[in-house]
Design a protein that fits this description.
binds 4-fluoro-L-phenylalanine; Hydantoin permease; mainly alpha; Transporter; SNS_sf; single chain; Na/ntran_symport
């Protein structure tokens, strides 16, 4: 039954197709686009990596996103409840439980990085990076690294910034699906899209723009190696928020008429455009100043302040750049935390408010382990990894691929093509249901095999 808010069966839903689009795009667009995508592209050969990434988005990312939307939309249930409603054997609930674990594991380190981003917004507004423009280039490089070191190494500040990031997420989530998630993503995602276009446009007017473009667009096939393929596949997974029930959860807030296939394609295309625009923002600057494209994870926190402090209007751009990174990180985090929140409220009957507060408390308690610099920069903690790297490795290389594989197998082999076709149609079938047979073959045979290869390679069972 529908209430006057358009809720389905007493559950909140997003209020329009546009709300669905911005919420799911808000989940996909995150630090993955602005931080991981440029540095992985830099390290893995530029255009060749991007080409492989695009292929993985089409063959693995989009099919799994559709499968997750299908599960959520047709059952209107949380990531654990889905499998109860479908009367699947208990085994499949593992997808939901692993999803909740992944949400926490990613939040432990992601909230740390989000905290750094928040603090860089404030630093940029205060003009902390202006001194860099008055220094010789080498000294400025050292100074910006020192600033990053003191940001992450402080005794109190990094914990406080992480707590601030988690607090923002907590407040938005307590407000609910419509008044929280929908309102924030609908307001902020258009702002983010405008900001990234402005920054990319500014970068493209620099002297190094041509080289930057060549790097991004020129495909050198000799750079495509098995490890490049596997890295690209893994990134497409993390990027599109797949394999941990996020898209199942958001799919469960869809209305009857919201389109599954159409939304998945629009989100995948827009998310990829944001990644490419982030690349267009970063690489012209890198080449203009003769920096290393393969500079690694420091690209965002070191290179960007350094180079933007040297170009006209750079200080304004810096504020804009870190603001957009903060928006991206925040809307991605709310989608992660929503996964366990809705499971706790619906499966255990805990109030939304208490569910959000207790999960935030767990994130802060354990996430604090990733803040401390020793645990970030190498001293051995668990299985030879720092807590930061351990949480990152465990989630991206094990939990997400296994989750995605199980989702592909479940929807590929346990669901009828006819039912998928019905869900594709939405309120008014304009032909999407005819895609179901082709889609189902892809999900049965192609997607799981590719995923299995990534996973087996990641855990070292095979090495390609
Ligand atoms: N897609 C986000 C990013 O690229 O930053 C990260 C992410 C969000 C991963 C939500 C998983 C998730 F459930």
């Amino acid at each position: 039954k529908s209430s006057k808010n358009g809720d389905r069966q007493g559950r909140e839903t997003f209020s329009s197709g546009l709300a669905v689009f911005f919420a799911t795009l808000g989940s996909a667009v995150g630090l993955g686009n602005i931080w991981k995508f440029p540095y992985l592209t830099g390290q893995n050969g530029g255009g060749a990596f991007i080409l492989v990434y695009l292929i993985s988005v089409v063959l693995v990312g989009v099919p799994i996103m559709i499968a997750e939307f299908y599960l959520g939309k047709t059952t209107r249930a949380n990531a654990v409840g889905v499998f109860k409603k479908l009367k699947a054997s208990k085994f499949w609930r593992i997808i939901g439980f692993m999803g909740m674990m992944s949400a926490l594991l990613i939040m432990f380190f992601y909230s740390s990085v989000a905290g750094w981003v928040y603090s860089y917004v404030v630093k940029a507004i205060r003009g902390d990076f202006r001194v860099l423009s008055k220094m010789p280039f080498d000294a400025a490089g050292k100074a910006v690294e020192a600033q990053f070191g003191s940001t992450v190494g402080g005794t109190f500040a990094p914990f406080a910034w992480q707590a601030a990031a988690v607090a923002v997420v907590t407040i938005i989530l307590i407000a609910g699906v419509k008044k929280g998630i929908e309102r924030v993503t609908k307001t902020l995602m258009p702002v983010l899209l405008i900001l990234i276009v402005i920054i990319a446009a500014r970068s493209l007017t620099l002297d190094g723009a041509g080289k930057g473009l060549d790097f991004l667009m020129g495909v050198d096939f000799s750079k495509i190696s098995p490890s490049v393929i596997l890295t690209a596949l893994g990134l497409s997974f993390f990027k599109l928020s797949l394999g941990m029930g996020t898209m199942i959860t958001y799919g469960s807030y869809f209305n009857e008429e919201n389109k599954i296939v159409n939304t998945a394609f629009k989100v995948a295309v827009s998310d990829t455009m944001v990644s490419l625009l982030a690349g267009l923002a970063v690489f012209p600057v890198v080449f203009t100043f003769g920096l290393e494209p393969g500079g690694g994870p420091g690209l965002l926190f070191n290179t960007i302040p350094l180079v933007f402090s040297l170009i006209p209007f750079g200080n304004v751009l810096l504020v804009l750049f870190f603001s957009l990174a903060a928006i991206a990180a925040t809307t991605a985090m709310i989608s992660m935390v929503e996964v366990p929140v809705i499971v706790l409220t619906e499966e255990l009957g805990i109030s939304r408010r208490n569910a959000v507060l207790s999960i935030s408390a767990v994130i802060l308690a354990i996430g604090a382990l990733t803040v401390h610099p020793e645990s970030l920069f190498g001293s051995t903690m668990i299985y030879g990894k720092s807590f930061f790297d351990f949480f990152d490795y465990l989630s991206s290389n094990i939990f997400l691929p296994v989750g995605g594989l199980l989702i592909a197998i479940f929807v590929g082999w346990k669901v009828k093509t006819k039912d998928i076709g019905l869900s594709f149609g939405g309120g008014s079938d304009d032909g999407d249901s005819r895609l179901a047979p082709v889609y189902h073959i892809l999900l049965k045979f192609v997607t799981p095999v590719l995923l299995l290869l990534v996973f087996l390679n990641a855990v070292g069972v095979i090495s390609i």
